[in-house]
Specification:
With 265 residues, the protein is mainly α. Helices cover 68% and strands 7% of the residues. The protein is built from 11 helices and 5 strands. It has a 3-stranded antiparallel β-sheet with strand order 2-3-4. The two termini are 47 Å apart.
Length: 265
Protein backbone atom coordinates (compact mmCIF):
# COMPACT_ATOMS: atom_id res chain seq x y z
CA UNK A 1 0.00 0.00 0.00
CA UNK A 2 1.37 3.44 -0.95
CA UNK A 3 2.54 5.45 2.04
CA UNK A 4 3.02 9.20 1.77
CA UNK A 5 6.55 10.33 2.65
CA UNK A 6 5.83 13.61 4.42
CA UNK A 7 9.54 14.35 5.00
CA UNK A 8 10.72 14.13 1.39
CA UNK A 9 7.53 15.72 0.09
CA UNK A 10 8.08 18.76 2.33
CA UNK A 11 11.78 19.00 1.44
CA UNK A 12 10.86 18.86 -2.27
CA UNK A 13 8.66 21.93 -1.76
CA UNK A 14 10.66 23.93 0.79
CA UNK A 15 14.21 22.65 0.47
CA UNK A 16 16.46 20.78 2.87
CA UNK A 17 17.55 21.94 6.33
CA UNK A 18 21.15 21.06 7.21
CA UNK A 19 23.24 21.66 10.33
CA UNK A 20 26.92 21.10 11.18
CA UNK A 21 27.36 20.16 14.86
CA UNK A 22 30.65 21.07 16.55
CA UNK A 23 30.90 17.57 18.01
CA UNK A 24 33.42 15.91 15.68
CA UNK A 25 32.06 12.36 15.77
CA UNK A 26 28.46 13.48 15.23
CA UNK A 27 29.54 15.84 12.44
CA UNK A 28 31.30 12.95 10.70
CA UNK A 29 28.05 10.96 10.71
CA UNK A 30 26.17 13.86 9.08
CA UNK A 31 28.85 14.92 6.56
CA UNK A 32 30.00 13.38 3.30
CA UNK A 33 32.70 14.53 0.87
CA UNK A 34 31.74 14.08 -2.78
CA UNK A 35 33.28 14.91 -6.13
CA UNK A 36 30.89 17.89 -6.33
CA UNK A 37 31.75 19.17 -2.86
CA UNK A 38 30.63 18.74 0.73
CA UNK A 39 27.19 17.34 1.49
CA UNK A 40 25.26 17.35 4.76
CA UNK A 41 22.31 15.25 5.87
CA UNK A 42 18.99 17.03 5.97
CA UNK A 43 17.51 17.20 9.47
CA UNK A 44 14.04 16.54 8.03
CA UNK A 45 14.31 13.78 5.41
CA UNK A 46 17.79 12.43 6.19
CA UNK A 47 19.08 12.69 2.61
CA UNK A 48 22.44 14.29 1.86
CA UNK A 49 22.26 17.78 0.32
CA UNK A 50 25.17 19.46 -1.45
CA UNK A 51 26.42 22.79 -0.19
CA UNK A 52 27.37 24.49 3.04
CA UNK A 53 25.19 23.72 6.08
CA UNK A 54 22.43 26.18 6.93
CA UNK A 55 23.69 26.42 10.49
CA UNK A 56 26.37 25.18 12.84
CA UNK A 57 27.10 24.94 16.55
CA UNK A 58 26.56 22.53 19.44
CA UNK A 59 24.07 19.75 18.73
CA UNK A 60 21.84 20.96 21.56
CA UNK A 61 21.40 24.29 19.74
CA UNK A 62 20.30 22.71 16.46
CA UNK A 63 16.76 23.56 15.30
CA UNK A 64 14.13 20.96 16.17
CA UNK A 65 12.80 20.22 12.70
CA UNK A 66 9.38 18.49 12.54
CA UNK A 67 9.63 15.15 10.76
CA UNK A 68 7.65 11.95 10.44
CA UNK A 69 4.52 11.93 12.62
CA UNK A 70 5.22 15.45 13.93
CA UNK A 71 5.28 16.77 10.35
CA UNK A 72 2.01 15.01 9.51
CA UNK A 73 0.41 16.42 12.66
CA UNK A 74 1.58 19.91 11.71
CA UNK A 75 -0.13 19.52 8.32
CA UNK A 76 -3.42 18.60 10.07
CA UNK A 77 -3.06 21.57 12.45
CA UNK A 78 -2.55 23.90 9.50
CA UNK A 79 -5.65 22.50 7.81
CA UNK A 80 -7.57 23.35 10.99
CA UNK A 81 -5.92 26.79 11.00
CA UNK A 82 -7.19 27.50 7.48
CA UNK A 83 -10.70 26.42 8.50
CA UNK A 84 -10.51 28.69 11.58
CA UNK A 85 -9.35 31.77 9.68
CA UNK A 86 -12.02 31.33 7.00
CA UNK A 87 -14.65 30.99 9.69
CA UNK A 88 -13.28 34.06 11.47
CA UNK A 89 -13.46 36.15 8.30
CA UNK A 90 -17.04 35.00 7.67
CA UNK A 91 -18.05 35.94 11.22
CA UNK A 92 -16.45 39.38 10.78
CA UNK A 93 -18.64 39.91 7.70
CA UNK A 94 -21.72 38.87 9.69
CA UNK A 95 -20.73 41.21 12.54
CA UNK A 96 -20.36 44.07 10.06
CA UNK A 97 -23.79 43.25 8.58
CA UNK A 98 -25.40 43.28 12.05
CA UNK A 99 -23.74 46.62 12.86
CA UNK A 100 -24.84 48.06 9.51
CA UNK A 101 -28.37 46.80 10.08
CA UNK A 102 -28.48 48.39 13.56
CA UNK A 103 -27.93 51.80 11.96
CA UNK A 104 -30.70 51.45 9.38
CA UNK A 105 -33.39 49.17 10.85
CA UNK A 106 -36.30 51.36 9.76
CA UNK A 107 -35.10 51.66 6.16
CA UNK A 108 -34.46 47.92 5.89
CA UNK A 109 -37.89 47.22 7.42
CA UNK A 110 -39.61 49.36 4.79
CA UNK A 111 -37.68 47.74 1.93
CA UNK A 112 -38.52 44.28 3.26
CA UNK A 113 -42.26 44.98 3.50
CA UNK A 114 -42.32 46.56 0.03
CA UNK A 115 -40.54 43.65 -1.64
CA UNK A 116 -42.48 41.01 0.28
CA UNK A 117 -45.60 41.88 -1.70
CA UNK A 118 -43.82 40.88 -4.94
CA UNK A 119 -43.80 37.23 -3.86
CA UNK A 120 -47.45 37.09 -2.71
CA UNK A 121 -48.96 36.05 -6.09
CA UNK A 122 -46.58 33.08 -6.29
CA UNK A 123 -47.11 31.98 -2.68
CA UNK A 124 -50.89 32.38 -3.00
CA UNK A 125 -50.85 30.15 -6.07
CA UNK A 126 -49.22 27.36 -4.01
CA UNK A 127 -51.46 28.12 -1.00
CA UNK A 128 -48.51 29.06 1.20
CA UNK A 129 -49.16 31.59 3.97
CA UNK A 130 -46.22 33.91 3.39
CA UNK A 131 -47.24 36.39 6.09
CA UNK A 132 -46.96 33.80 8.85
CA UNK A 133 -44.12 31.66 7.55
CA UNK A 134 -41.32 30.87 10.03
CA UNK A 135 -38.68 32.64 7.91
CA UNK A 136 -40.68 35.86 7.60
CA UNK A 137 -41.59 35.78 11.30
CA UNK A 138 -37.93 35.37 12.26
CA UNK A 139 -36.85 38.29 10.06
CA UNK A 140 -39.60 40.53 11.43
CA UNK A 141 -38.57 39.74 15.00
CA UNK A 142 -35.11 41.16 14.27
CA UNK A 143 -36.72 44.50 13.37
CA UNK A 144 -37.98 44.76 16.97
CA UNK A 145 -34.52 44.37 18.50
CA UNK A 146 -33.08 47.45 20.16
CA UNK A 147 -30.05 49.05 18.57
CA UNK A 148 -28.06 48.46 21.76
CA UNK A 149 -28.87 44.73 21.59
CA UNK A 150 -27.72 44.51 17.98
CA UNK A 151 -24.49 46.33 18.85
CA UNK A 152 -23.83 43.82 21.65
CA UNK A 153 -24.44 40.97 19.19
CA UNK A 154 -22.06 42.56 16.67
CA UNK A 155 -19.41 43.02 19.37
CA UNK A 156 -19.77 39.41 20.55
CA UNK A 157 -19.46 38.14 16.98
CA UNK A 158 -16.35 40.26 16.43
CA UNK A 159 -14.76 38.93 19.64
CA UNK A 160 -15.52 35.36 18.56
CA UNK A 161 -14.00 36.05 15.13
CA UNK A 162 -10.81 37.39 16.73
CA UNK A 163 -10.53 34.26 18.88
CA UNK A 164 -10.84 32.13 15.75
CA UNK A 165 -8.12 34.12 13.97
CA UNK A 166 -5.80 33.97 16.99
CA UNK A 167 -6.36 30.19 17.09
CA UNK A 168 -5.53 29.98 13.39
CA UNK A 169 -2.26 31.89 13.74
CA UNK A 170 -1.17 29.84 16.75
CA UNK A 171 -2.04 26.52 15.10
CA UNK A 172 -0.23 27.49 11.89
CA UNK A 173 3.04 28.13 13.72
CA UNK A 174 2.55 25.08 15.96
CA UNK A 175 2.19 26.78 19.35
CA UNK A 176 1.02 24.63 22.25
CA UNK A 177 -1.04 27.44 23.81
CA UNK A 178 -3.04 27.59 20.55
CA UNK A 179 -3.86 23.89 20.88
CA UNK A 180 -5.22 24.48 24.39
CA UNK A 181 -7.17 27.54 23.19
CA UNK A 182 -8.63 25.59 20.27
CA UNK A 183 -9.77 22.71 22.48
CA UNK A 184 -11.34 24.98 25.12
CA UNK A 185 -13.00 27.38 22.67
CA UNK A 186 -14.29 24.63 20.38
CA UNK A 187 -15.58 22.46 23.23
CA UNK A 188 -17.38 25.46 24.76
CA UNK A 189 -19.51 25.87 21.63
CA UNK A 190 -20.31 22.17 21.13
CA UNK A 191 -23.47 22.29 23.32
CA UNK A 192 -24.73 25.28 21.33
CA UNK A 193 -24.09 23.48 18.03
CA UNK A 194 -25.91 20.41 19.37
CA UNK A 195 -28.86 22.59 20.46
CA UNK A 196 -29.11 24.19 17.02
CA UNK A 197 -28.91 20.78 15.37
CA UNK A 198 -31.80 19.51 17.52
CA UNK A 199 -34.01 22.31 16.14
CA UNK A 200 -32.95 22.18 12.51
CA UNK A 201 -30.96 19.35 10.95
CA UNK A 202 -28.75 20.09 7.95
CA UNK A 203 -25.74 18.45 6.34
CA UNK A 204 -23.58 21.53 7.01
CA UNK A 205 -24.46 21.57 10.72
CA UNK A 206 -23.84 17.84 11.09
CA UNK A 207 -20.51 18.11 9.25
CA UNK A 208 -19.41 21.07 11.37
CA UNK A 209 -20.32 19.32 14.63
CA UNK A 210 -18.53 16.11 13.65
CA UNK A 211 -15.43 18.05 12.50
CA UNK A 212 -15.27 20.02 15.75
CA UNK A 213 -15.68 16.93 17.94
CA UNK A 214 -13.01 15.08 15.94
CA UNK A 215 -10.67 18.10 16.15
CA UNK A 216 -11.05 18.36 19.94
CA UNK A 217 -10.42 14.64 20.51
CA UNK A 218 -7.51 14.45 18.07
CA UNK A 219 -5.70 17.51 19.47
CA UNK A 220 -6.16 16.41 23.08
CA UNK A 221 -4.87 12.89 22.44
CA UNK A 222 -2.15 13.47 19.84
CA UNK A 223 -0.73 16.55 21.61
CA UNK A 224 -1.17 15.00 25.09
CA UNK A 225 -3.04 18.02 26.48
CA UNK A 226 -4.33 18.26 30.06
CA UNK A 227 -1.95 15.53 31.18
CA UNK A 228 -3.33 12.89 28.81
CA UNK A 229 -0.94 10.12 27.72
CA UNK A 230 1.88 11.46 29.91
CA UNK A 231 1.26 15.15 29.30
CA UNK A 232 3.82 17.68 28.12
CA UNK A 233 6.81 15.63 29.37
CA UNK A 234 5.87 12.67 27.17
CA UNK A 235 5.03 15.02 24.29
CA UNK A 236 8.47 16.69 24.39
CA UNK A 237 10.19 13.32 24.72
CA UNK A 238 8.34 12.09 21.63
CA UNK A 239 9.33 15.20 19.65
CA UNK A 240 13.00 14.88 20.53
CA UNK A 241 13.07 11.12 19.94
CA UNK A 242 12.19 11.81 16.29
CA UNK A 243 15.00 14.37 15.86
CA UNK A 244 17.64 13.19 13.39
CA UNK A 245 20.47 14.57 15.53
CA UNK A 246 19.22 12.71 18.60
CA UNK A 247 18.85 9.52 16.59
CA UNK A 248 22.41 9.85 15.28
CA UNK A 249 23.76 10.71 18.74
CA UNK A 250 22.08 7.62 20.17
CA UNK A 251 23.39 5.49 17.31
CA UNK A 252 26.90 6.82 17.87
CA UNK A 253 26.71 6.10 21.59
CA UNK A 254 25.85 2.42 21.10
CA UNK A 255 29.28 1.33 19.78
CA UNK A 256 31.02 3.13 22.67
CA UNK A 257 28.79 1.36 25.20
CA UNK A 258 29.37 -1.97 23.47
CA UNK A 259 33.15 -1.47 23.38
CA UNK A 260 33.18 -0.50 27.03
CA UNK A 261 31.23 -3.61 28.02
CA UNK A 262 33.56 -5.80 25.90
CA UNK A 263 36.66 -4.26 27.51
CA UNK A 264 35.28 -4.89 31.01
CA UNK A 265 34.53 -8.47 30.08
Amino acid sequence: MFKRDWDRRTCAKRGHITYAPTEAELAARLHAATALGDAWRCLRCGDFALGAPHGSGPAQDAPLVPRGKALRDLFILRFLAIERVLRGLLIIIVAWAVWKFSNSQDAVHRVFDENLSVFRPVTDHFHWDLEHSPIVDTIRKTFDYKKSTLLIVAGALLAYALIEIVEAVGLWIGKRWAEYLTVVATAAFLPLEGYELSHHVSAVKIGTLVLNIAAVLWIMLSKRLFGLRGGVVAFEAERHSASLLEVEEAAGAVPHAARGAHARA
